[in-house]
Amino acid sequence: MNEEILKAVDEIADEMIEGIKRIVRIDSVESEAVSDAPFGEGVRHALDETLQLSRNLGFETVDVDHYIGYARYGKSDDYVCACGHLDVVPVGEGWKHPPFSAYEEDDVIYSRGILDNKGPILSCLYALTALKRLGIKPEREVRIIFGCDEESGFEDLKYYLDHEKAPIAGFTPDCKYPVVYAERGRAVIKVKADLDHLITFMNKYILNTQNKGERLGIDYKNDEFGQLEIRNYHLTKEDFSFSISYPAGITLEEILDKLNRIEGYEYEVVSHFKPVYFDKKAPMVEIMKETYEYVTGNDGTPVTTTGGTYAKMMPHIVPFGPSFPGQKGIGHNPNEWMTREDLITNAKIYALTLYQLSRKETEL
Q1: Region at 316 (left for phi over 0; alpha for psi -120 to 50; beta for the rest)
Q2: Looking at the DSSP assignment, which residues form a beta bridge with residue 190?
Q3: What is the pTM of this model?
Q4: Per residue in 173-191, pLDDT tens?
Q5: pLDDT mean over 207-225
Q6: Among the residues of 94-232, which ranges form H helices?
Q7: Residue 146: which of 53, 56, 58 has the closest Cα?
Q8: d(Cα 299, Cα 289) in Å, to the nearest integer?
Q9: Distance (Å, rounded) from C-alpha 146 to C-alpha 62?
Q10: Which CATH number goes with the domain that contains 195?
Q11: Residue 223: predicted pLDDT
Q12: In 3D, which of 320, 314, 318, 363 has the Cα closest to residue 124?
């Protein structure tokens, strides 16, 4: 069956590329909310067109009050999913070609969103299309979820989880390969004191350090998950804030306990996402390791990431693709790109993965 699925993806490859270009050409940078468009008209347009494309491919679709939407195949009490997003970061300067043109040169497609994340999540949609055209009927419902606020706060996913139950397994195609079994936790901490004390805090504990929290007593390192890091400093007359990227193995409560030992300051947690952690031998992770290795022939040993994805909020999913080893610094930069070959390879990996996840005999 694996080879039949890979062949089916090849057969729809050109159709997939054209479908991806159709959606990538839409400017879906978040803008001011208007009626029936909580993240702006551009994002709403991208969601509408993607759901229409999904219907054209034969899938039932659900629009969750324009916050987020999904295509689904099969019906069951529980479901598995691929969860990506249609919103994109602002385009910035330095583009060789218009940023929403889906310009192609030497089999490389350039556009804002082609990698982050329209190309990959639509690769998932076409992966599911390949299964459908083979007549494969999933025993577990499969959803391809199209988020609309990943770049600006996850309000889309919060809304989704208030109105829909969570999947039992799945992935977000918004990181890297091989399968990522752990993400760092992220917290934004606000330090409160008068201005003189804030300046003292910054000079004594933040400046001229390695940004690993050593002077604050929180310089935690885990050989498997890496080193705690402090970033994004911001000083005002009223407070001082910074973000902490921390590995699994330490908790935010432990971090705050150590900070509170420094007298004269109050600390407020502005936002916080716990680390994502799955056992490397978990059935879902093993499936993704095996499908990646089958398609690419590369080592699929699960890895960790310092980044942050929908896996921070959506239960039971892990980051999985789309960038291959060595591909870095593409998504938020000018001339964002992805090759035809990589899009097709992603679709093959995702088709095998969704097929395995959707089978009742597959342990999850």
Answers
A1: left
A2: 241, 268
A3: 0.94
A4: 999 999 999 999 999 999 9
A5: 87
A6: 118-133, 155-163, 195-201
A7: 53
A8: 8
A9: 10
A10: 3.30.70.360
A11: 85
A12: 320
| Token pair listed for 243 | 């973000």
Q: Tell me, what CATH number does 345's domain have?
A: 3.40.630.10
- 197 and 173 in a single domain? The answer is no
Inter-residue contact 167 to 143 (CB < 8 Å) = yes
Rounded CA gap, 302 and 285, in Å? 8
Do residues 183 and 309 make contact, with C-beta atoms less than 8 angstroms apart? yes
The answer to the question of residue 363 being in a domain is no
Which pLDDT score is estimated for 212?
87
Whether 207 has a pLDDT exceeding 90, the answer reads no
The answer to whether the CB of 35 falls within 8 A of the CB of 66 is no
Residue 86: C-alpha distances to residues 42, 150, 282 (Å): 10, 8, 29
Domain of residue 221: give its range. 185-273
The tokens describing 291, both together, are 């499908």
Residues 248 and 164 placed together within one structural domain of the fold: no
Please name the amino acid found at residue 33: A
Taking the C-alpha atoms of residue 79 and residue 64, their distance in angstroms, rounded to an integer, is: 17
| Chain position carrying tokens 């994002």 | 43
pLDDT for 329 equals: 87
Find, among 276, 275, 254, 283, the residue nearest to 364 by Cα.
283
| Contact (CB, 8 A) for 66 and 47 | yes
SS3 call for 70: strand
pLDDT at 257: 96
Sign of CA dihedral 44, 50, 54, 57: positive
> Tokens at residue 171, please?
């992935």
Tokens of 327: 């591909």
Answer whether residue 209 shows pLDDT above 90.
no
Which of the 8 DSSP states describes residue 76? -
